[in-house]
């Protein structure tokens, strides 16, 4: 009765990433009403600086009240807008992006297409750059949403560039070549490489060397580069973020024809914590892409009310300067807290300098070094100690045992409770005994609720003692 698209599970919602989100909704943690509920550490949202934005709103009630120079703007905003978007927002976005890139590149507002978040920007680019059945190469681990955003409606395929922990998951010439060869073996026409810089889920910025490797590769193969830079202003320690646009500029390629193959995706969902406002964009030098994407943006416009509000926030340069500095300070502190608390219980993280999460190494806690072992551990963490994380397999990581833990969507108190739970959990399965314990657990399934109750009780008690 329904179309294949509507009835087949190609959306990807049965991946552990989406399952975890659904489980959390059923039983969320609440320090008063449900202190044994699930703590959500699987959502890359920034709630740390909401108070700054709220105080801006309180001081700028004219903007939310549709007033300007004493008159009403309601009619202008409420009536139909065309799909090019407000010029004032494009100008502010361009200036903000230049600022984030240390003014080392010029961003032309006329080369911006507004979209309903990066989700829409990524999909629109796939529609513009590839046919169904064509492929994009993406370094692993990657943001689980790409399986939906890039593939689902467009029919585009993703071929993984298999990166490994042996070099901190960096892209190399050989991993790129292998992925390209693999795509050819599958009879797929490779249309481009998509990089996420800074990376979700790694929280790392790409080095100049890596960006140059990708640029050399796309020039040699004459394919597109899509650079998803959604976390570009969420970089809180060095080495700093370098945009692909800067490297192109440095190499004097900005006026070459090859520049028509570079496209940047951005949104305010992370850097400004505006994921609900759906303000995203494509930046491209390619006039045909800009023209086609602008027409396609009819299917995912940003409301004029939101455009008006956001252009005013970005336009307040004094506020933005303060916001950026303070927001990064808070993120740096929170990131440090998670890293050091995990370290204290013997869990290392990949060294990272940005993003809203850590890439956590729990390989030593696996019952077997397989993805089954990883899923088993993820299930225990979710259902026994009630912390929702993303297992590496949901990000297509090639090695089992890595997990993404988000730190900016929860309160300090929740971070504390979650780490107490982890501590008790890890201490109950020390070193060599882990394997043995798992065997025992399998046998004594009936005892599991008792163990769970004990872990939750103990973690609650310890967290109260600590404070
Ligand atoms: C790398 C990456 N790209 C795109 C998105 C989608 O962002 P948006 O909320 O702007 O659609 C996300 C969201 O987490 C992301 O991490």
The unreliable regions are 440-451, 461-467
Per CATH, the superfamily of the largest domain is: Type I PLP-dependent aspartate aminotransferase-like (Major domain)
Q: Compute the number of strand runs.
A: 14
Strand order of the largest sheet: 4-10-9-8-7-5-6
Q: Count every helix, treating DSSP H or I runs of 4 or more residues as helices.
A: 18
Mean pLDDT: 90
Which radius of gyration do the C-alpha atoms yield?
A: 23 Å
Q: Share of helix among residues?
A: 40-55%
Bound molecules: pyridoxal-5'-phosphate
Q: Give the class from helix and strand content and strand pairing.
A: alpha/beta
Shape: globular
CATH topology of the largest domain: Aspartate Aminotransferase, domain 2
Largest sheet: 7 strands, mixed
Kindly estimate the percentage of residues that lie in beta strands according to DSSP. Answer: 5-15%
Domain unit count? 2
Termini, distance in Å? 58 Å
CATH architecture term of the largest domain: 3-Layer(aba) Sandwich
> Quick one: CATH class of the largest domain?
Alpha Beta
What does this 3D model show about the protein?
Keywords: Pyridoxal phosphate. One of its GO terms (biological process) is amino acid metabolic process. It comes from Artemisia annua (Sweet wormwood). One of its GO terms (molecular function) is transaminase activity. The structure is a single chain. With 467 residues, the protein is an alpha/beta fold. The protein has two domains: 15-49 and 323-465, Aspartate Aminotransferase, domain 1; 65-318, Aspartate Aminotransferase, domain 2. It has 18 helices and 14 strands. The strands form four sheets. A seven-stranded mixed beta sheet has the order 4-10-9-8-7-5-6, sandwiched between helices. A three-stranded antiparallel beta sheet has the order 11-14-13. Helix 11 (244-250) links the parallel strand 8 (224-228) and strand 9 (262-267). Helix 6 packs across helix 13 (304-315) and helix 16 (412-427) packs across helix 18. The longest helix is centred in the C-terminal third of the chain and has 28 residues, at 317-344. The chain is globular. The structure holds pyridoxal-5'-phosphate. Pyridoxal-5'-phosphate (PLP) binds at residues 44, 117-119, 143, 145, 196, 200, 228, 230, 267, 269, 275, 280. Residues 44, 117-119, 143, 145, 196, 200, 228, 230, 267, 269, 275, 280 line the site of pyridoxal-5'-phosphate.
């Amino acid at each position: 009765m329904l179309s294949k698209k509507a009835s087949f599970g190609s959306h990807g919602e049965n991946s552990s990433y989406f399952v975890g989100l659904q489980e959390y909704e059923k039983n969320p943690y609440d320090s008063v009403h449900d202190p044994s509920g699930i703590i959500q550490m699987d959502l890359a949202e920034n709630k740390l600086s909401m108070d700054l934005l709220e105080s801006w709103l309180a001081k700028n009630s004219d903007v939310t009240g549709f007033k300007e120079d004493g008159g009403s703007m309601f009619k202008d905003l409420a009536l139909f807008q065309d799909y090019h978007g407000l010029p004032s927002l494009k100008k502010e976005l361009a200036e903000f992006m230049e600022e984030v890139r240390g003014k080392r590149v010029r961003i032309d507002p006329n080369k911006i297409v507004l979209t309903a978040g990066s989700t829409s920007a990524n999909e629109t680019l796939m529609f513009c750059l590839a046919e169904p059945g064509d492929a994009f190469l993406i370094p692993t681990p990657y943001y689980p949403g790409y399986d939906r955003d890039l593939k689902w409606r467009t029919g585009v395929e993703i071929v993984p560039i298999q990166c490994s922990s042996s070099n901190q998951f960096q892209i190399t010439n050989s991993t790129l070549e292998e992925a390209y060869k693999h795509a050819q073996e599958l009879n797929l026409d490779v249309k481009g490489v998509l990089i996420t810089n800074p990376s979700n889920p790694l929280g790392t910025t790409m080095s100049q060397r890596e960006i140059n490797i990708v640029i050399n590769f796309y020039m040699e193969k004459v394919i597109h580069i899509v650079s998803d830079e959604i976390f570009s202003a969420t970089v809180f320690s060095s080495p700093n973020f370098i945009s692909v646009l800067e490297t192109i500029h440095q190499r004097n390629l900005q006026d070459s024809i090859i520049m028509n193959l570079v496209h940047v995706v951005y949104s305010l969902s992370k850097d400004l914590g505006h994921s609900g406002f759906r303000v995203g964009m494509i930046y491209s030098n390619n006039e045909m892409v800009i023209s086609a994407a602008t027409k396609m943006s009819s299917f995912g416009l940003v409301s004029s009310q939101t455009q008006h509000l956001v252009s005013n926030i970005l336009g307040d340069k004094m506020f933005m300067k303060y916001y950026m500095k303070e927001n990064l300070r808070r993120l740096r502190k929170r990131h440090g807290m998670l890293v050091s608390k995990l370290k204290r219980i013997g869990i290392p993280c990949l060294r990272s300098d940005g993003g809203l999460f850590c890439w956590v190494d729990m390989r030593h806690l696996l019952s077997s070094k397989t993805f089954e072992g990883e899923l088993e551990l993820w299930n225990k963490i979710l259902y026994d100690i009630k912390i929702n994380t993303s297992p590496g397999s949901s990000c297509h990581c090639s090695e089992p045992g890595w997990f993404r833990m988000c730190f900016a969507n929860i309160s300090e108190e929740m971070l504390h409770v979650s780490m107490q739970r982890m501590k008790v959990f890890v201490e109950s399965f020390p070193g060599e005994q882990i394997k043995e314990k798992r065997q025992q657990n399998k046998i004594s399934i009936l005892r599991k609720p008792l163990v769970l109750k004990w872990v939750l009780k103990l973690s609650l008690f310890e967290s109260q003692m600590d404070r």
